[in-house]
């Protein structure tokens, strides 16, 4: 197989299934290409993900798994599944397009900054969506800045490529010398809590102005309340971790009211 030709991206103007017209190439993900397209049937913008042939992954399987996850979720803050299809030996997944900006772009490109209260309010909105996932026994396992989108004042979570349905939760306690990667990917709800801890830290760092040339720990660098520090420590499992998402939501909401 000619890998290069197989992995060529679609041209703007290509119409798939006589329905989806590619209008923009959005990006190259770990296992596929992502396009913005217009659904001629509904005249709305959609996202089309195309698998990319890789020697080391079964990208078709991954795309199918993402389609299965998306099709079993229904939430106003998660893109709706439209369809999965094969055309000319390539597989495509179509979903709603969320016309907003992800937090990586908001902070790094647009220079947005979030104070302690803003950051906790954003975390609270993310927790509402993750609660829905966890209630349905799904773990997202990739809650990073590029996968959390803000559209007007609403938050959305995208990219269910690594999500899994948890049949049986791994018993996990403290970090036990695990690497960051292992903590993100663990088959436990705590892996999403861990990612949300990092998400909160990134939001808080958006207002950070270095006061010393020496690099310090986040607890020394960030000027935030002890309560927020404690929430982060628990999310990152530096101390007694959270067991249930409802406990996080409760702590965050009580603290927002206080600040
Ligand atoms: N439903 C969507 N609405 C808006 N933008 C989207 C949507 N899905 C994906 N994108 C955009 O395309 C980019 C890549 O998509 P996605 O993260 O799902 O692909 P991936 O192959 O899993 O990538 P990665 O390796 O970065 O995880 C996202 O960062 C986002 O900018």
UniProtKB/TrEMBL annotation:
GO MF assignments: ATP binding; protein tyrosine kinase activity
Gene3D superfamilies listed in its UniProt record: Transferase(Phosphotransferase) domain 1 (1.10.510.10)
Entry keywords, A to Z: ATP-binding, Kinase, Nucleotide-binding, Transferase
Superkingdom, taxonomy of origin: Bacteria
Keyword rRNA-binding in record: no
Pfam (any one): Pkinase
SUPFAM superfamilies: Protein kinase-like (PK-like)
Residues reported to bind ATP: 49
Residues of the Protein kinase domain: 20-259
Cited InterPro entries: Kinase-like_dom_sf, Prot_kinase_dom, Protein_kinase_ATP_BS, Tyr_kinase_cat_dom
Entry-linked PANTHER family: SERINE/THREONINE-PROTEIN KINASE
Protein's name in the database: Protein kinase
